[in-house]
Please model this.
Amino acid sequence: MFKKILQDIVEESDGYSAVLMGYDGLAVEQYDQPCEAGDLNPFAVEYAHVLKEMKDTLAILNSGEIEEVTVRTERFQVIIRALSEDYFVILTMACNGNYGKGRYLLSREQFRLLEELQ
Model:
């Protein structure tokens, strides 16, 4: 079921990839569209490490849990939505993709993903 949810997010946002991951850096499921960058999984793994460090830092600062992180580069925009204390989802889109729609879809599908995780 995860694959279908991730596929819906990617296809509706015209994105490249959506990955459901644990903070340990292991992908639970991934859906990819063909992309000039090739396999985007290494990006997701590296973002998992960065996100884990951010999560730990926020805990030390007592500033609350991560809800969402966005990274924009010349080639991509990456939207990361926290699902729980153990899992998050990463959507990778073109740099000129519809950022608002990507955020909306991640927010909308958050509850379906959480239901499937239980």
